[in-house]
Design brief:
44% of the residues lie in helices and 15% in strands. By secondary structure, the protein is α/β, with parallel strands linked by helices. It is globular. Keywords: Aminoacyl-tRNA synthetase, ATP-binding, Cytoplasm, Ligase, Metal-binding, Nucleotide-binding, Protein biosynthesis, Zinc. It catalyses: tRNA(Cys) + L-cysteine + ATP = L-cysteinyl-tRNA(Cys) + AMP + diphosphate. It comes from Rhodobium gokarnense.
Length: 459
């Protein structure tokens, strides 16, 4: 039997995208609660939007471990290390694909380690599961749900009666959302690639259909099957993956294995904006985790993310980071160097058990901070914050690490802002991005508005 707090587990509720309802969580096997989350495609440094699912599902992983016992939760988060973006970036940099993916995966791990994100139970790589992918494609062809054409193998979407059940989109919406490729070898416009041929110089593996490589959607179906089984409990990821990626994962997995479901609960975190705008390199507001960590402790980034409920859109702002840093300063001041209590506060656990209501949990932590003044309750505050990956340092270590303030040369900052404005006017967006990123690395955040560009100093 699980050695966690299984009585509390009965009260866990999660919003299921599949049903569009908040449901009581009931695992297939309480002795082995299984969760899969889509991980990074390792071609470039992860941006702050990529940090959101890593943090959100880390909180869920921690909660499940608390409720069911650490030895009774299996968390799989993959690494996609075969992809056209990887091929293009390696060629652009003049390095091998292996060199690029190893370097990018290493930086990703360093970055999310700094955010107090626990390593998953299993972290499979796509290139290590080619045999499982080929086996799935063969079975889909055998079952009448896929066909070979012009060196490709495609999933036959009309062969699945309830395709689209997760996203609940019309055919027109699905075609637009999938950015359907027009190809003469397709039977139906919505059919998607399971296997495609590889040209010379591209990664490829021998298969019954010739040398080739997998389609993007197939990877997660194969890796979840390998490590979690044909059916498992929770599948998570960003809302941007709901369609077509997760929809196609479901189609492949169910039609291959003949199951009614792939995962029983589908969880999706909301979009992230930066200073009220969609993040993009052309707008100069593309922020990587790696760069933010040069100026902010990882706990600040983590708490700032959790102040918004995971299903809601979040606006990532410099003001919000400053407020969050002050909150952490106050909490660390309250706990001192106290050890955590044996159990977290029941109110915090209850908030997290209500569809990961982190804003409500944080409100409870504020209450614990007030009670912790004078030494009382410090241990409870620390244990409760630890449950969501916060207050993992001592107050003295925190103070020593966050005391330094960046030096500021206002005239030099204004000169660089003008140089950036000139670069943007000349459509030299790469130079404009470089200037903004260099300033960010020095602790200076820029904010573009109708009346020009303003700046402020980060802690």
């Amino acid at each position: 039997m699980p050695d966690g707090h299984n009585t509390g587990a009965r009260s866990l509720k999660l919003y299921n995208t599949l049903s569009r309802e908040k449901e009581a969580f009931s695992p297939i096997d309480p002795a082995n609660v299984r969760m899969y989350v889509c991980g990074p495609t390792v071609y470039d440094f992860a941006h702050i939007g990529n940090a959101r699912p890593a943090i959100v599902f880390d909180v869920l992983f921690r909660l499940l471990r608390y409720l069911y016992g650490a030895d009774h939760v299996t968390y799989v988060r993959n690494i996609t290390d075969v992809d056209d973006k990887i091929n293009a970036r390696a060629a652009e940099r003049g390095i091998s694909i292996r060199e690029l993916t190893e370097e990018t995966a290493r930086v990703y791990h360093e970055d999310i380690d700094a955010l107090n994100v626990l390593r998953p139970t299993v972290e499979p790589r796509a290139t290590e599961h080619i045999a499982e992918m080929i086996a799935m494609v063969e079975k889909l062809v055998e079952n009448g749900h896929a066909y070979a054409a012009d060196g490709h193998v495609l999933f036959d979407v009309p062969s699945m009666d309830d395709y689209g059940r997760l996203s609940r989109r019309s055919l027109d919406e699905m075609q637009a959302g999938a950015r359907v490729e027009v190809a003469p070898y397709k039977k139906d416009a919505m059919d998607f690639v399971l296997w495609k041929p590889s040209a010379d110089g591209e990664p490829g593996w021998d298969s019954p259909w010739g040398r080739g490589r997998p389609g993007w959607h197939l990877e997660c179906s194969a890796m979840s099957w390998k490590h979690l089984g044909k059916e498992f409990d929770i599948h998570g990821g960003g809302i941007d993956l709901q369609f077509p990626h997760h929809e196609n994962e479901i189609a492949q997995s169910r039609c291959c294995h003949g199951t009614d479901v792939m995962a029983n609960y589908w969880l999706h975190n909301g979009f992230l904006q930066v200073e009220g705008e969609k993040m993009s390199k052309s707008l100069g507001n593309f922020i990587t985790i790696h760069d933010l960590l040069k100026d902010w402790p990882g706990e600040v980034l983590r708490l700032n993310m959790l102040r918004t409920h995971y299903r809601q859109p979040i606006d990532w702002t410099a003001k919000g980071l400053t407020e969050t840093a002050k909150i952490l300063d106050g909490w660390y001041d309250a706990i001192g160097d106290a050890a955590p209590a044996a159990e977290p506060d029941a109110e915090v656990v209850a908030a997290l058990s209500d569809d990961l209501n982190t804003p409500k949990a944080i409100a409870a932590l504020h209450g614990l901070r007030a009670a912790a003044k004078g030494g009382e309750g410090a241990a409870s505050l620390k244990a409760s914050a630890n449950l969501i990956g916060l207050l993992e340092e001592t107050a003295s270590d925190w103070t020593a690490r966050t005391a330094a303030e960046p030096e500021v040369d206002a005239s030099e900052i204004e000169r660089l802002i003008e140089a950036r404005r000139t670069a943007r006017a000349g459509k030299d967006f790469a130079e404009a991005d470089r200037i903004r990123d260099d300033l960010a690395a020095s602790g200076i955040v820029l904010k573009d508005g109708p009346e020009g560009t303003t700046w402020e100093v980060r802690r």
